[in-house]
Design a protein that fits this description.
With 332 residues, the chain is α/β, with parallel strands linked by helices. Helices cover 29% and strands 25% of the residues. It is globular, with a radius of gyration of 20 Å.
Length: 332
């Protein structure tokens, strides 16, 4: 049997015993070392912060049981007979949930972690990939003025991608002071500790008197959408990256037509043939190795996997103190 954290109802989670999956010829078996808690997605699901009939509702209902988590790092313990690129003992990351030994994944969905990258940094690859989809959708490039609303884990990853992409100014707005310093370390040219609706003067000043030509909402807060439209410059792009559980509460404003805004949604599943997950992950590792994707200071909490309940309680009740929250599966 293998152990896995599952959600069985509102505010109901447990460590379940699940059958060991057979190993396919193209698969690998991985023993999990660490898994990264997705503070947005997992709390929305666990505490059912979504409206009936939404894509969140349909997704959760389609999963029985609902296996929590989606980004792990571990060690290959067995390979299928057709696997050539990976070997026993390799350190890999893959998009699997919070579970322990005997986890099975397709070899093509496991990515070798380069030497020199710490496991506590490499395990961010899944959130880095999601953030990349937002930056890619916004077509961030050289000279752009990017406003990022929200400095949580996804917002922090967006900040780093924008810096790597060559944005001339990257400004992050968030109410939580602890997040501002993290964003500065990640390449933000300015940070503002105010609600975005109260920060227009500071935002314009940070962009040299100009409005942002790209706004990325990473919050998942439905009410922020109107604020993003309001602060965007003429002909700007507004990227909806934070995935709210109540999309009916997101409202268009006259800014869309008045300023000729382009609105684009970005999601984890929006990979393309040009940018598959493998290429994005390899770029994340390459930039990290070169010191162009700084991760220092993002890890705030490490819990023994057996303390999963405590971890979710801390994330829900003291979000301001949390950023990177990791389960250590060597301490089960």
């Amino acid at each position: 049997m293998r152990k896995h954290i599952i959600f069985s109802g509102k505010n109901e989670c447990s460590m379940a015993e699940l059958p060991v999956e057979p190993l396919a010829d193209t698969g690998v078996r991985v023993k999990t070392d660490l898994s990264l808690l997705s503070t947005g997605t997992e709390t929305i699901v666990l505490y059912q912060k979504y409206a009936p009939g939404t894509h969140w509702d349909n997704w959760v209902k389609s999963c029985n049981p609902f296996l929590a988590g989606y980004t792990v790092i571990g060690t290959v313990t067995e390979v299928g007979k057709d696997v050539k690129a990976l070997s026993v003992g390799n350190r890999v990351v893959c998009r699997k949930g919070h579970g322990t030994e005997h986890m099975v994944a397709d070899a093509n969905e496991c990515y070798l972690v380069p030497d020199g990258i710490e496991s506590v940094d490499a395990v961010w690859f899944g959130l880095a990939k999601i953030a990349f989809m937002g930056v890619h959708a916004g077509k961030v490039g050289l000279g752009d003025r990017v406003l990022i609303i929200g400095g949580g884990p996804i917002g922090q990853m967006v900040t780093r991608w924008c810096a790597a992409a060559g944005a001339s100014a990257t400004v992050l707005v968030d109410m939580m002071p602890s997040r501002l310093g993290m964003a500065t370390k990640g390449g933000a040219t300015a940070v503002i500790g105010k609600p975005v609706d109260d920060a227009k003067d500071e935002i314009l000043a940070a962009f040299g008197g100009l409005e942002p030509n790209i706004v990325i909402d990473s919050t998942g807060n439905a009410k922020v959408f109107e604020s993003a439209l309001g602060i965007a410059g003429k002909y700007a792009t507004v990227v909806v990256l934070g995935d709210t559980g109540t999309p009916s509460a997101q409202h268009l404003t006259s800014d869309v037509i008045g300023k000729g805004l382009r609105i684009v949604g970005a999601h984890d599943c929006h990979t393309t043939t040009e940018w598959p997950e493998k290429r994005i992950t390899e770029l994340f590792f390459s930039l990290s190795s070169a010191g162009r994707f700084p991760m220092d200071g993002l890890l705030t909490h490490t819990f023994a996997a057996s303390d999963f309940r405590k971890a979710y309680d801390v994330v829900e009740t003291d979000r301001a103190s949390t950023m990177g929250v990791i389960f250590d599966w060597k301490k089960l």
